[in-house]
UniProtKB/TrEMBL annotation:
Family annotation (Gene3D superfamilies): Hexapeptide repeat proteins (2.160.10.10), Udp N-acetylglucosamine O-acyltransferase, C-terminal domain (1.20.1180.10)
Record protein name field: UDP N-acetylglucosamine O-acyltransferase C-terminal domain-containing protein
UDP N-acetylglucosamine O-acyltransferase C-terminal domain segment(s): 274-365
Alphabetized CDD domains for the sequence: LbH_UDP-GlcNAc_AT
Originating species: Urochloa decumbens
Keywords, alphabetical: Acyltransferase, Lipid A biosynthesis, Lipid biosynthesis, Lipid metabolism, Transferase
GO function terms (MF aspect): acyltransferase activity
GO cellular component entries: membrane
Coiled coil start-end: none
Pfam hit, one: Acetyltransf_11
Length: 373
């Protein structure tokens, strides 16, 4: 009994073998599979090609699916080096890499895709946002009451110390103290950033700041956004730095000073009083040296805005030696001048100056009196 192949199978394309029962007298014999008839050979080759293409396509799909699953699995899995010490109560996100000789404390929370390079440490109640990089030797947090919160995509440089106890003698052992750092900051090697000195306060650093090597930000400082602090910039306690400021190297800022937005502090300056917005200071016991014109240009201020700021600065800070008007008189006269007072930038500068003379503030940096000759 002969069993036919299922309909639609590739074997249907091949000629069947011939038995003696299939021979009809007076007609030629059917060709066998090994026959050299051109139509039979072409059909066999076409079938083989079709089968090969289908097999290749299926294999490719399987390989791609396997690779995608493998990549997703690797991305979701965290790597912890056997030489690292990670407390079982620590919270570790997906895709985290922890190198050798790292330590992670029981209250630490490490966000997804963070990298802890060899010999870095996260201790105390410390939260590290997604995508942060902690380089060799850095220490985040401390085993004291309070909390350190570090946002997403921050880079903590080699041997930086972030979120440790302040160096203020007013701090009482056992008090809670806090540090909150925003996103996208680069904190370079050997920097030190301290927590607050009191439970009712907090050291705060905003977003997108570049803090170069060996800088110090003391307890209770408030740092804004888009600032650049060159190497060895030192901020004492309770300093307020607004947005888009720039310091050159080896700058020292006295406690409780305010540094206005878009200002520039020259290299080696010792700043003991407030720096108004948009201005530039320099010197030991820093003095006002004009507007930060380059900073204004880089930050997109229009020519008209810069001209108005220059005119306002000259009216307030560049009186002649023969002028009998007081500083307060000149500031009031500027506020009454409609053309300048309607400029948002000029209004911000005047407000910054006024606030520096509020109770508890330190006033503004000294400025020179100019000769009329």
């Amino acid at each position: 009994m002969q069993i036919d192949a299922p309909t639609g199978c590739i074997s249907d394309s091949f000629p069947k073998t011939t038995s003696t029962a299939d021979v009809i007298p007076g007609r030629p014999l059917p060709l066998s599979p090994n026959s050299s008839h051109p139509m039979s050979a072409a059909a066999a080759r076409a079938a083989r090609r079709l089968l090969s293409c289908r097999l290749q396509a299926t294999t490719t799909r399987l390989l791609h699916a396997s690779a995608s699953q493998g990549a997703a699995r690797e991305a979701s899995e965290s790597f912890i080096h056997p030489a690292a010490v990670v407390h079982p109560d620590a919270s570790i996100g997906q895709g985290v890499s922890i190198g050798p000789f790292c330590t992670v404390g029981p209250s630490a929370r490490i966000g997804d895709a963070c990298q802890l390079h060899a010999g870095s440490h996260v201790v105390g109640d410390t939260e590290l946002g997604e995508g942060c990089v902690v380089q060799t030797g850095a220490i985040l947090g401390a085993d004291i009451p309070g909390q350190t919160i570090i946002g997403e995509n921050n880079v903590i440089g080699h041997y930086a110390v972030v979120g440790v106890k302040c160096q203020d003698l007013k701090y009482k052992t056992g008090d809670e103290c806090f540090l909150h750092i925003g996103r996208n900051n680069e904190i370079r090697e050997y920097c030190s950033i301290h927590r607050s000195s009191k439970s009712c306060d907090c050291t705060v650093i905003g977003d997108n700041n570049l803090i170069m090597g060996s800088c110090h930000i003391a307890h209770d400082c408030k740092i804004g956004k888009h600032n650049i602090f060159a190497n060895n910039t030192l901020f004492a306690g309770h300093v307020v730095v607004e947005d888009c400021t720039h310091t050159a190297g080896a700058v020292v800022v006295h406690q409780f000073c305010h540094i206005g937005s878009y200002s520039f502090l020259g290299g080696g300056s010792v700043v003991t009083q407030d720096v108004p917005r948009y201005t530039m200071v320099a010197g030991d016991r820093a003095e006002l040296r004009g507007l930060n014109l380059e900073g204004l240009r880089r930050n997109g201020f229009s020519d008209q805005e810069v001209r108005r700021l220059r005119k306002a600065y000259q009216k307030v800070f560049m009186p002649t030696v023969t002028s009998e008007s007081s500083f307060e008189d000149r500031l009031s006269a500027l506020e009454r001048e409609i053309e300048l007072s309607e400029s948002p930038a000029v209004s911000c500068m005047v407000k910054s100056i006024r606030m520096s003379f509020d109770q508890g503030r330190r006033g503004i940096c000294k400025f020179r009196t100019w000769s009329s000759s």
